[in-house]
Amino acid sequence: MSTMKGRPARIAIVDDHPAVLLGAAGILRAHPDLQVVATSPTVPQLLAQTPRLDLVLLDLSLADGSTPTQNMRLLSQIGVPVLAFTSGERPAAVREVARAGAIGMIRKSERPDAIVAAIRAALRREVVATSDWAAALDDDTTFTTAHLSPREAEVLALYAAGETAERVGAHLFISRETVLDHIRRIRAKYAAVDRPAKSKVDLYKRAVEDGILSQGAHADASSG
């Protein structure tokens, strides 16, 4: 279930094809834990509605000429996961949205149950690494060989060592939401190089493997 603290998860869809909007909304309407609260042909128009959201489904090719990077930059203002919702024929756009911080992708042509499963995973802040996503990133050597940024390494070191997101934020003077955003990006980077880190224990293992933490330097890698 994707219920957020006792309420349905609030989802927005950005797509400029009315049939896609209607179809996706219809799929989600069948699930009480998922609620489409906003649809829009562009990201600026979505943000103008000022909806409270838990997830955004984002088409990667919009008629306003915007790029995935531009749209991800705008959506970063609301601090929720963004799942690419695409026909998948443009691997370059998939690579671009991955670099910009999307949590994964799902094809519009997937079965309804696969779309719902991907949305629920994204709501849990799990990377949705489909075969299309992995294939697109495999072709991007710059992205797949990228190291974590210094800030991401700081966040990973503290979080994987057993600190909660709240305590990591307090230590680094950033918000809990910013910490979670860093963790999401860290997971996306590891997923992109075929080293998934879906759990906190996985993050601890990756931190040890990459020399960010020493073996045994964790209090409780299963918490938080």
Write the layout of secondary structure elements.
Elements: E1 9-14, H1 18-29, E2 34-40, H2 43-48, E3 55-58, H3 68-75, E4 82-86, H4 91-99, E5 104-107, H5 112-123, H6 131-138, H7 141-144, H8 150-160, H9 165-172, H10 176-192, H11 200-209
Parallel strand pairs: 1-2, 1-3, 3-4, 4-5
Polypeptide structure, described:
It is globular, with a radius of gyration of 17 Å. It is built from eleven helices and five strands; from the N terminus they run βαβαβαβαβααααααα. The two termini are 19 Å apart. With 224 residues, it is α/β, with parallel strands linked by helices. The chain has helices at residues 18-29, 43-48, 68-75, 91-99, 112-123, 131-138, 141-144, 150-160, 165-172, 176-192, 200-209; strands spanning 9-14, 34-40, 55-58, 82-86, 104-107. The relative contact order is 0.11.
Q: How many distinct beta strands?
A: 5
Q: Report Rg.
A: 17 Å
CATH architecture of the largest domain: 3-Layer(aba) Sandwich
Largest sheet: 5 strands, parallel
What do we call the CATH homologous superfamily of the largest domain? Response regulator
Fraction of helical residues: 40-55%
Instruction: Find the structural class using helix and strand composition.
Output: alpha/beta
Could you say how many structural domains there are in total? 2
